[in-house]
Amino acid sequence: MRNLFLLIFLLLFSHTLFSQTITFEGLHELRLNKQRQGMLVLGTWALGNMAVGALRLGHTSGENKAFQQMQIGWNAMNLGIATLGYFSTLKVDPSGWDTYQSVQEHYKIQKILLFNAGLDVGYILGGAYLMEKGQREVKNAERLRGFGRSILIQGAFLFVFDFSLHSILSSDNSKLKPLLSQSSIGFAPNEVHLRLNLSK
User: Fold this and answer.
1) pTM above threshold 0.90
2) 132-141, pLDDT tens digit by residue?
3) In angstroms, rounded to a whole number, what is the distance separating the alpha carbons of residues 7 and 12?
4) C-alpha to C-alpha distance for 36 and 12, rounded to whole angstroms
5) What is the DSSP letter of 95?
6) β-pair partners for 191
7) Strand pairing partners for 187?
8) Under 8 Å between Cβ of 149 and 127
9) What whole-number distance in Å separates Cα of residue 90 and Cα of residue 88?
């Protein structure tokens, strides 16, 4: 009976001690806030490009008209991604995640951003290819040059955006170590293992 009281006391004490430090839930909320800010940046970029493209579209022709058309179309997709990305973070509830899922979720968005940065390089190369092809005597050469210029610019922006957001999010990776080294309770047949880390 005395051991049971001691166990309860240690559990309560450790909860009080570690409630003053960052938690997985707090770390996830920090990450989600940064993701929301990133989606606001992407959405602002998209709206700005669409507005400028719409204003200039009726006053241009040829290559420049194709450029503005692609600016509007590409950024309509960017705006959709930013909107979905923003509102999806509002639905996340990390309170029920265990340690494994918490670590997975922490790194998942970083992996997605690195993958996207690779795609962005492909967009840049694709845009450069269309521009180069449009320099030849081919059908729709002006459209190719206009589309290519827009895709190259959008790919370059997205590369900087994805890489920057990855760097911002990965700056919190070091906060995982103290969380993973905190107190833990393990269970085995006829045994309970309690490990307390009292260091700061």
Assistant:
1) no
2) 999 887 788 9
3) 9
4) 35
5) G
6) 188
7) 192
8) yes
9) 5
